[in-house]
Amino acid sequence: MDKFLQANLQALAKTDPDLGARLVAAATDLHRYGFVPARSGEPIPTLSAPSGAVRPLHSLVDPVREGRRLISTVKDTGFLVFFGLGGGFAITAALEREDIQQILIIDYDIHGFAELLDSKSYLDVWQDPRVHILVDPRPEVVEEYIFEHYQPILYRGIQVIPLRIRIEAEPERFSAAGAGINAALTRISGDYSVQAHFGARWFSNILRNLLRMNPSPDPLPVLNQAAICAAGPSLDIQLPHLAKKRQDCFLIATDTSLPCLLHEGLVPDAVVSIDCQHISYYHFIQGLPGHIPLYLDLASPPVVASRALYPRFFSGGHPLTRYVSRYWRPLPLVDTSGGNVTYAALSLADCLGATQVALYGADFAYPLGRTYARGTYLYPFFDARQTRIAPLEALWSAFLYRSPELKRVKQGDAWYYETPTLHRYRRLLEEKIPLLRSRIIPAEGLGAPLRIRKGQKGLPPARLESFPGASIPARDFIVGYRKRISDLPALTGTVQRYLQGLTKAQGSVLTTLLPLAAAIQHRTPLLGPGALIEAVRDSSLKKIDALLG
User: Fold this and answer.
1) Which candidate, 207, 433, 188, 213, places its Cα nearest to that of 311?
2) In terms of CB atoms within 10 Å, which of 273, 367, 371, 446 comes out highest?
3) How high is the pLDDT of residue 223?
4) Are residues 399 and 251 in the same domain?
5) What CATH number has the domain bearing residue 386?
C-alpha cells in the first residue's frame, strides 16, 4: 500500500506543502479505518460503530455509480463542500462536471486521513486545481476559508455534501465546521446583497467622481482630541455638553448630523459621507460652509461631492477605488467595513492621529421609539409630505416600523428598539475599538450602550498626510481602464482555470467589476459564469462610453 501513500503525498505537497508535511509525520498503522472490497473491486473504507458493527462508508456494490448518482442531484451550484473524504467517489464524480467550480474537503483526524491515502490513489482529486483540503480545522479557519474563497457572483450556489457514516463518528467536530460555514455565509450574504443593490451605482459614481478630483490645497490636520457626531436621538440631550467642549476638540460630523449641528450654531471641522445613494444630498440642502472639508468615499454620489469646494476623496474598500489608488492616484484608505458612517468617521479620526475620541449621538438603536435627532433631513422631508390622511405621526410611525424585525429592549427605566442591522453596526464598532490607538469615550445617552473592551492594540494605521495629485489626467486613466476591460478574455472551461489563466493585471481589472457583476446577476440570475462575465464587460464599457461621450 505504501506506493499509494507516497504518490498521494507527492501530489499533495505540490499544492499544500503544510498538509503534506503533517501527513508525512502521521501514523498509518493505528487502524482508524478498515477496508473491504466492493463488488466492483474498489476498496471501501469502513468504520466500527460503538456496538462493534463494521459500517462501510460507501456502497458495497458500485461506489462509483453511487457517487455519480449523488452528484447528479447538484443543481445551480458551483461550490461544493464535502464533509469526509472516504473513498472520494462523489468527489471524483463532481470533478467530471465543469460547472462545479471549486471543491473543499473537510475531514478530521490526520492519522485516519493518512490511512485513507495509504489505501488507494487519489491523484485525480489532488491534481485538480479546484480542490482544497482542510484536515482538523478549527471552526474559525473554516469560516475564513469560505469567506475568502466563495464568490457567489462566480460560483452561484454552495452546497455541503456529507458522508453520513463518517459524520456520525464525530458529530461535534463536523457540526462545528457547519457552524463555521454558516457564519461565513451570513457575512457573505450581507456583502453580496449590498453589492447586488448598489454595484451599478458604485461603478458609475466612482468613474464620474474621477473627473472632478483635484488635489486639496490645505494640509491635513494632526488631531489630539476629537469628537464624532452621529445623528441618533440622544444627540438632542448631548448637544449642550458638546457645545461646552467644542473649543477643545476637532469636531467631525457624519453627514446625517450636519444639519443638526448647523441648526445649533455648531460648525464642524470636517464632515464624512460614505453613502452611495442620492438621498445623501438631503443632508447638505442647508449648505456646507465653504471652508469645511468634506471627506467622501470615492463611490459617493457626484451631486454630494459638488457641495464642497475641495472634496477629499478616500478609498473605502471598493475594489475599483483601490485600483484607482494603485494605478492612477494614491488615495487614503479609510476603513468603511462597519457599514455605517459613524464607523468610517472613527476610522478617519484614528488615521489622523487622534489620541482621544468622544462619540455623540451614536445610539445604534431607536430610543423610546425615536429614529433620529431633531434637525436631520427627515424632519423637513416629512413636514412637506404630511396630509390630512397621512399626518406627521403616521409618516414617522411608518418609517420606524418599516423593519419587520424590531426588537424592544428594556434599559433601566427606559427602553429602545433595535434591528438586526443596527445590532450588527454596533457589534462591528465594538470589535473595531480595541484595535484603535485612540481612546474612545461614548457620551451618556439613551441608545444601546457601547461595550468598550480592552484588547491588544493593532498596529496604528498609516497616518493620512495628504491627498496627492495624479500623474495623468483622469480622462486618460479612464480610457486606459476601458481598454483593459475590453481586453479581458472570455471565460471558457471552469472558473478556477479561467482565474488562474489571467495575468495579475487582468485579475485586478476583473476584481473591480465584481460588485457590478453582482448587480447584473441579481437582475438576471440564470446567467452562467461565462455569460455573466460577458454581460458585465459589455455593461461597464457602455457606462464608460456614456461618461466619455
Assistant:
1) 213
2) 273
3) 85
4) yes
5) 3.90.1480
Residue type present at position 512: T
Q: How far apart are CA 499 and CA 529, in angstroms?
A: 12
Sequence-distant (6+) residues with CB within 8 A of 154 are 78, 101, 495, 514, 517, 529, 532
Domain membership of residue 243 (yes or no) is: yes
Instruction: Dump strand ranges (E) for 312-451.
Output: 312-314, 356-360, 366-367, 407-411, 414-418, 439-442
Domain span at residue 302?
Answer: 212-442
Residues 241 and 163 reside in one and the same domain? no
Element (DSSP H or E) covering residue 341: helix 341-351
Domain assignment of residue 161, yes or no: yes
Residues 6 or more apart whose CB falls under 8 angstroms from that of 473 comprise: none
Q: Assess if residue 457 is contained within a domain.
A: no
Beta strands at 414-418 and 366-367: parallel, antiparallel or unpaired? antiparallel
Instruction: Give the closest residue to 145 by CA, choosing from 112, 116, 109, 105.
Output: 105
Q: What are phi and psi of 362, to 5 degrees?
A: -90, 75
Cell output for 381 = 422631508
**Can you tell me the distance from the alpha carbon of 500 to that of 334, in angstroms, rounded to the nearest whole number?**
30
Give the count of beta carbons closer than 10 Å to the beta carbon of residue 149: 13
What cell does 529 get? 459564469
In the sheet that 366-367 helps form, which strands lie side by side, from edge to edge?
366-367, 414-418, 407-411
Choose the final residue of a domain: 424, 442, 460: 442
Task: Name the phi and psi angles at 97, rounded to 5.
Answer: -105, 125
Closest CA to 238 of 442, 448, 451: 442
- pLDDT tens, position by position, 489-537: 999 888 888 888 999 999 999 999 999 999 999 999 888 889 999 999 9
Same domain, 150 and 257: no
* Residue type at 445 in one-letter notation: G
- 65-77 core/surface letters (b: 16 or more CB in 10 A; e: else): ebbbeebeebeeb
Q: Are 430 and 450 in contact (CB under 8 A)?
A: yes
Burial of 42 (0-12, 13-18, 19+ CB in 10 A): middle
pLDDT under 50 in the chain at which residues? 1, 456, 458
Q: Give the DSSP H or E segment for 149.
A: helix 139-149
Same domain, 27 and 138: yes
Separation of alpha carbons 449 and 321, rounded Å: 34
Domains in the chain: how many in total? 3
- Residues contacting 508, CB < 8 A, separation 6+: 323, 326, 327
